[in-house]
Amino acid sequence: MLSISQAAKATGLSIKSIRHYEQIGLINAPPRSENEYRYYPEKLIKQLHFIKGTKDAGFNLKESKALLALCEDSERSSSDVKEIALQKIAELEIRIKQQQILLNSLKKLTKQCHGDKQASCPIIDAFAK
Fold this sequence. Notes:
Layout: E1 2-3, H1 4-11, H2 15-23, E2 39-40, H3 42-56, H4 61-71, H5 78-112, H6 122-128
Antiparallel strand pairs: 1-2
Helix pairs in contact: 3-4
């Protein structure tokens, strides 16, 4: 069993995140020692690793909770897991397109800017509208 600081170090999560996950019910409250310190058994460490993985893959906490529930359900259907992943892919594709539009706009503005000692600047002008 690990202390919360050891659990944070082992999983790459912050202590604050781990406490937050406990508060919102994403993970169960860990057992406490006689001095009331939290101690994390292997099962909770595995859950925290899983949550970190989903977080790193771009899933939000609601999605992570759903995936964690499916992970722990031995009778799960892989189609349920795939559905969540496909929804995330669609969301990411939309965000990538939006970011590409922003990138192209900024590139266009920087090409229009002379980048010299003049005060006039199309970048400032675009933001000042």
